[in-house]
Amino acid sequence: MPVLFWIVPVAGVLAVLFVLWLARNVLKHDSGTPKMKEIGDMIFQGAWAFLKRQYSTIAIFSIVIAIVIGVLVGVLGGSGGEAENSYTGFAIAWRTSVAFLVGAACSAIAGFVGMYIAVKSNVRCAAAAQKSLREAVNVALRGGGVAGFLITALSLIGVTAIFFAFGGYNEPEIAPHLIIGFGFGASFVALFAQLGGGIYTKAADVGADLVGKVESGIPEDDPRNPAVIADLVGDNVGDCAGRGADLFESTAAESIGAMILGIAAYLVTKNIVWILFPLVVRGFGMIASMIGLISVKTKESENPMSALNRGYYVSLILAVVGLFISVYFLFNSELHGKEMWFFAAGLVGIVASVIVVFVTQYYTEFRFRPVRDIAEASKTGPATNIIAGMSVGFETTFATALIIGVSLILSYWFGTQTGVEGAGVFGTAVATMGMLMTCPYILTMDTFGPITDNANGINEMAGAGPEVRRITDKLDAVGNTTKALTKGYALVSAGLAAFLLFQAYLDQVSFIKTGEPGGYPLVDLARIEVFVGALLAAMVVFLFSAMSVKAVGKTASKIIEEVRRQFRADPEILNPKDPSKPHKPDYARAVDITARAGLREMIAPGLLPILAPVIIGLVFRWLGYEAPMVVAGFLMVGTIVGIMMASFMNNGGGAWDNAKKMIEDNQLKDEKGNVLGKKTAAHAAAVVGDTIGDPLKDTAGPSLHVLIKLLATVTLVLAPLFVG
Amino acid sequence: MPVLFWIVPVAGVLAVLFVLWLARNVLKHDSGTPKMKEIGDMIFQGAWAFLKRQYSTIAIFSIVIAIVIGVLVGVLGGSGGEAENSYTGFAIAWRTSVAFLVGAACSAIAGFVGMYIAVKSNVRCAAAAQKSLREAVNVALRGGGVAGFLITALSLIGVTAIFFAFGGYNEPEIAPHLIIGFGFGASFVALFAQLGGGIYTKAADVGADLVGKVESGIPEDDPRNPAVIADLVGDNVGDCAGRGADLFESTAAESIGAMILGIAAYLVTKNIVWILFPLVVRGFGMIASMIGLISVKTKESENPMSALNRGYYVSLILAVVGLFISVYFLFNSELHGKEMWFFAAGLVGIVASVIVVFVTQYYTEFRFRPVRDIAEASKTGPATNIIAGMSVGFETTFATALIIGVSLILSYWFGTQTGVEGAGVFGTAVATMGMLMTCPYILTMDTFGPITDNANGINEMAGAGPEVRRITDKLDAVGNTTKALTKGYALVSAGLAAFLLFQAYLDQVSFIKTGEPGGYPLVDLARIEVFVGALLAAMVVFLFSAMSVKAVGKTASKIIEEVRRQFRADPEILNPKDPSKPHKPDYARAVDITARAGLREMIAPGLLPILAPVIIGLVFRWLGYEAPMVVAGFLMVGTIVGIMMASFMNNGGGAWDNAKKMIEDNQLKDEKGNVLGKKTAAHAAAVVGDTIGDPLKDTAGPSLHVLIKLLATVTLVLAPLFVG
Is the torsion defined by CA of B242, B248, B254, B257 positive or negative? Predict the structure, then answer.
């Protein structure tokens, strides 16, 4: 075991201690006036109730899936047949099932704890804003840090622990294959967390807006609207829990994939560093992110985004140093200087993560042309606004594809320059790990988003003064930016990881067939069955998008019905006879109805990407085709199309959102130079665009990141079925 | 030469005579009142001016491209190098250039003549409607027949003639490779025709609506709107000329691709039927379609769609008979009964074309759930309408992918059952040819659409009586259906053909390298360069969609400016002081401005799919990768994504359109049972949806069909560049 490996447990333990310190720090903050406390409690209860219900559903599914995997892989996966070896039959089946449950459980724990602190932080952030901007930033950032660091730490500790539990010390060349269930468990939970949360949050948002703002003419976040708490709950369960589960699974699955790819070199060199490298890099990344977070000091007068960015740059620089140390100390004795090509490959990933930030800003901020075009198009009504936004969304795929494509080609080439056989793919794995090094920090910034969004809503509902509102408004805007950046980051990292996960799948197929890596047949797109598999994969991405968008619509209609019912049942909710004693709407019921409907609607789109590759694989196996290759084609083209659609949806949605904000900021003028602001036709048109963008950017788009990785993990785990 | 081959020239000559007869028949009809004549003349002049300008641009581009191909392929394509043979260097370069120009010219001639008659038919159809429905259907159908049969006949005659001109009689194994330029010429013209026409038609439509209906509150097709003639012109240049060029290129490129695939069997058997088969099948298809068209007899009381459908079924049955005869007489002596597997493969194509019709109807008619869902969603405003429509559009990819996937697998399998080596791919070619047999009839029905649409507009502008309006209204609705069906047909045939065109490309690469078929390396998606090529292909489809949608917006803004300018310059256009002497707007100027802007905007998206594969191929060649395989990956995944996006756009757009029509037909009711018709908020919401769907279904979507095939032909032609 190389000495440097100890960075992994050290970083893991440090991260957990850091999380405890952050949590204590946040919780000891004052939670404001009784009114704020009351609102905060309602959000907490709503979010908690949703999570409990959601994770109960997920738990049941998980147990069923664990059993199904065990049986299917055990029985169909070559047990007792010719191909029987450590990678087939019951040898792998029970371990995969156990790893699956552990992965699912870790993801759930991380989600729960992160959420708990986030929902406790929002009201404290709102209260802190009454003191100073700096204080409010601190609370939100530390609250976000609990989620960010706990999630990544549990992923690092979980993968490491199960690796050693399944014999990684004695048989490091076999253990990575046995723990792929962990990645599948993580992506399974992530898909349902993101889908359920995404459907909930956007249904509540759209529903509250349509029935509140449009039908009844009351402002956003007005306490008379029964759906207003559901809307605030939604920000937590969608952005916070959903994205957390997404990146938990990214870090887990991609570490495991990279470890599998390291086996080939291990078998030649008998040097375990090839397998442990991803964990070491992530250990350094954890520490770099921790220091970055601690270094954030907000000046009272500055834009808080600048302070967050400074912390990010600190993390990035330290990550580069950590990467250098890892590469040098792990590989120098073997590669004698050529290991620096791996350092270059890792840099590609780090640079890619920075470029993503700029590109996302270009496409979604109204300083730049794309959003301005959409705002201009709003002058001629909603139709032209939407056509313009769709065009911008489609256009963003250009940058996304170019960043991913160039990063892959470059890091692969750097890998090959080491002269080690098969190191090209390992180069792309190093790039992916490089990109993921700052994940704890990114995730912290992401969770900052829903905390400040909620803080702003709480202040609005509690009737805070204008100075306080100004602070939380500003933080809310920063939160919107960090949420958009995280989505870009999550997407590009998924794209970068895709290639290494394919290769891991192909290695897995090869191991099952021959007990050795690299013996897989080619994935020949010119074969009819591979081509048809690829075509069906593209279709699954579109169908998934259709189902998840439609789920938002269906759930929203349930909320609308409930709000209308409450308004009818008690007209004094809207127009109290005695304004000092307003009738309170039944928030909890609205929350509950949204939760039930949202969870019901998440099931069909959630099962699609799990069942589709399995059915296609088994049907083609039954037809007598080379099923593992069909599934590989399915996986690769599904990934490509998923990345493109997610880029369209995330960035298009963000652009629509900010085109509306640009008009609300009075930045749009008509031909004669008059400002077109709120309550103009142009604003109404932009609101329509924003409403359309919402389910795209917060439900379907982010779920597609998870879908991409789920396709990879489900095919990895079920590879024995297809080989047969 | 097999005796049965004579069906090809016979069918070609018959079709030309048939076209002359149809044209004479249409032209001798009365062209109505002086007012109708005047309007008809304006449309004719506008369409003619646009076409002249459009084809001048295309002609210049074509000549440049012909020279560039000649030079590039001649110099870079292995001339004088090791690989030099009949498929490389100047040997292929000059022939490709000449074939390119001939293909482009044939497409242009077919487009011009078809358009000429279509624009002469509209006013005659309007006049015939004053006599009877039957008479009006006859005029529209015969006018459409001129386009339908001339286009397919020129494609059949053109391919045959150039095949023999380039030595097909003596060296049938080489000639198909030399004529691929013909297919590229055809798809080159088709892309610009479809893009230019599509941009023009939707910009005029959206522009006329926004500035007329929305800003000035005047009804559709009101003579006071300066853009109204441009709108009517647009229907002709978009739907008629564009789709005609699309299917000209389908039939040409797919015949050539199928002929290339036949070479492998020819080399073994020395039996030329393998190469001539596609032409023979199309000859029979031509005759089947002719008899089908002649058989159409409309009863005065029935829905004209039923009459058209009866004619279609006649064509289908005769096509099946023709297919049987072709297969039996060409292959029986060699395959002794096993040739019936090819008959089965051909049936797959014919059945697929029928299923497409039903699926398209399911997704776009308001008898069924999808459109009803969109109409229901309109009740809560434009945002929910658009979300619902987008979801339906995404969902339609399911049926599209399934039809194409199952047809490919089945026809491939039938092909392999003949026991001939490599006959699986030939099976998919037979299926494609089977599907294309009824193309002349389908194209006739398609051109029926813009003729009846125009006839309806002319009657509106000329102030015809309600009974006449009722007839042209009915015909217009039938035309909308036939236009939607043709798009579905064109898309699925493009998808079905895609696989045969890939294989032709791979054969071409193999011939260039080795002088023999089947020697191509595999298209291994697991190689990083192929994967990145595939990723970039998906991106190109999205970017192309972005550019073509944006082009519509930009062009529409020019029209809006011009109409506003005319209204400002002469207020009496809108509100004449003496209503008996209205001031006429300057229609010609509006037409001209739309044409200029539309043609300028078509250039960038038009060049993208031509340049992208060339640049990618050359860059990867320069980087030292196996460029032909990168391009193959690009081609295949670009096709898959193109099919999915086109399915989303065509069907989604159609569904939005008909959701609006459903509301206008008073088929939507609110909770209390009140009808929600025109001038309600639900209708306004549905109008927004329709406006968004328009550029998707009439510009970007149909252009994507062409893009798919253009990718195939441009890579086929430039294959020598990549092999190097």
Answer: negative
Tokens, residue A289: 């992110």
From B395, B525, B641, residue closest to A636, measured CB to CB: B525
Q: Which residue has the higher pLDDT, A57 or A535?
A: A535
As given in the structure block, the two tokens for residue B598 are: 């539309």
- DSSP string over A352-383: HHHHHHHHHHHHHSTTSHHHHHHHHHGGG-HH
Pair of tokens at residue B707:
């893009």
Phi, psi of A510 (to 5 degrees): -65, -45
Closest residue by Cα to residue A350 from A437, A415, A413, A409:
A437
Nearest by CB to residue A405, choosing from B386, B405, B535, is: B535
Mean pLDDT for chain A overall: 90
User: Which residues of chain B are within 8 Å of residue A604 when distances are taken between CB atoms?
Assistant: none
pTM: 0.94
DSSP string, A6-41: GHHHHHHHHHHHHHHHHHHHHHTS---SHHHHHHHH
Binary contact (A387, B549; C-beta < 8 A): yes
Reduced to 3 states (helix: H, G, I; strand: E, B; else coil), residue A226 is coil
Q: How far is CA A199 from the centre of its chain?
A: 15
Question: Looking at CA atoms only, how far is residue B467 from chain A in angstroms?
Answer: 34
Which residue, A512, A536, A498, A521, is CA-closest to A626? A521
Q: Reduced to 3 states, what is the DSSP secondary structure of residue B524?
A: strand
What CA–CA distances, in Å, run from B616 to A69, B139, B580?
Answer: 42, 49, 63
SS3 A578: coil
| Cβ–Cβ below 8 Å for A534 and B636 | yes
- Which of B323, B334, B315 minimizes the C-alpha distance to B274? B334
The Cα of B528 is separated from the nearest Cα of chain A by a number of Å equal to 7
Rounded CA separation B56/B108 (Å): 10
Task: Give me the phi and psi of A513, to 5 degrees please.
Answer: -75, -40
Q: B131-162: per-residue pLDDT in tens?
A: 999 999 999 999 999 999 999 999 999 999 99
pLDDT band at B519 (very low <50, low <70, confident <90, very high): low
- The CA distance from A176 to A183, in Å, is 11
Q: What is the pLDDT of residue A213?
A: 75
Phi and psi at A524, nearest 5°, equal: -90, 105
Farthest-apart Cα atoms in chain A, separation: 83
Choose the weakest-confidence range: B5-19, B345-359, B433-447, B662-676. B662-676
Quickly state the pLDDT bin for A117 (edges 50, 70, 90).
confident
Structure tokens at A633: 């084609």
Burial of A457 (0-12, 13-18, 19+ CB in 10 A): buried
pLDDT in tens, B637-687: 999 999 999 999 999 999 999 899 899 888 898 888 888 988 888 998 999
Q: Mean pLDDT, to the nearest integer, of B399-403?
A: 96
pLDDT tens per residue across span A162-198? 999 998 888 898 888 889 899 999 999 999 999 999 9
Q: What is the predicted pLDDT for the residue at B85?
A: 67
Determine the Cα–Cα distance for residues A293 and A313; give it in Å rounded to an integer: 10
Q: Do B401 and A539 touch (CB under 8 A)?
A: yes
Closest-approach residue (CA) in chain B for A203 = B384
User: Nearest CA to CA, how far is A527 from chain B (Å)?
Assistant: 9
Q: State residue A15 phi and psi, 5-degree precision.
A: -65, -40
Give the model's confidence band at B80: pLDDT under 50 very low, under 70 low, under 90 confident, else very high: very low
Facing A637 at nearest CB: one of B391, B428, B637: B637
Closest-CA distance, B90 to chain A, in angstroms, reads 29
Q: How many alpha carbons lie under 13 Å from residue B581 in its C-beta half-sphere?
A: 2
Task: Report which of B366, B390, B244, B479 is spatially closest to residue B696, judged by C-alpha positions.
Answer: B390
Residue A682 in contact with residue A178, Cβ under 8 Å?
Answer: no
